[in-house]
Amino acid sequence: MSAVPGDIAFYRRRLMVEEQLRARGIRDERVLAAMQEVPRDRFVPENIGLEAYEDRAISIGEDQTISQPYMVAAMTELLELKKSDKVLEIGTGSGYQAAVLSLLCREVFTVERINSLYLRARKALELCGYLNVHTRLGDGSLGLPEEAPFDAVIVTAAAPEVPRPLMEQLAEGGRLVVPVGPRYTQSLVLVIRHGDDFERKLSTPCVFVPLLGRHGFQETPS
Ligand code: SAH
Asked: What's the rounded Cα separation, in Å, for the pair 118 and 83?
């Protein structure tokens, strides 16, 4: 289901890639090509249509959002993926980030805690033919020990601290990207594993919905 030049969505994506990504410093050509290819409009609610390509996060229901294209690109670039990599994503949401990752590595495992989103993302990924993405329902703050180790881990929800299980499930040299900080303002943290040492680098400020679970924020009763 890759882009067909001549369709409007293709040109909207081209504008997105040039104006929102390349012009703002995304340099990795593989990441740019993947974002040119994935039909972001198929991962948002139907009434959104080509607004999917605007420079912002978009509501996908259940109080959750699909991240702004720039944030998807920046996080993906930090992972420095190789075609042979096995990747874990926490926070499937719409499935869009998983689709982008799937073009850059061997296999993606993605975990979502809300059943309705999990089902919808699974269907969208299947319909678009991203067959190397494996969806799971559960508390992703625990990681996916049965599939570890991972060459890269990406968390697309904000955590108060880097979740320990996700660090432990990294392969040697593996990279983990996670927004860390208080509930309404965070910074992207990149963790790189060297044996039992975990090097940390701080990157862009950001705002994500909370990672709720054992190694995330506590759920507040509504
Ligand atoms: N990557 C997504 C956007 C994610 S929004 C996309 O491309 O559309 C963050 C998602 O994280 C939400 O769907 C939320 O339900 C999920 N989430 C929050 N806490 C979680 C947890 N402990 N385990 C798995 N998913 C979680």
From this structure: 25
* Global pTM exceeds 0.85: yes
Fold adopted by 8-206: Rossmann fold (3.40.50)
Domain coordinates in residue numbering, the chain: 8-206
For ligand 1, whether the C-beta of 38 sits within 6 Å is no
CA 7 to ligand 1 centroid distance, Å: 30
Residue 2 has pLDDT above 60, yes or no: no
**Peptide bond before 149: cis, by omega within 30 degrees of 0?**
yes
Q: Helix 69-79 and helix 29-37: axis angle, to 10°?
A: 140
What does the pLDDT read at residue 220?
Answer: 74
The pLDDT score that the predictor gives to residue 219 is 83
3-state helix, strand and coil shares in percent for the chain, rounded to the nearest 5: 35, 30, 35
Q: Give yes or no for residue 155 CB within 6 A of ligand 1.
A: no
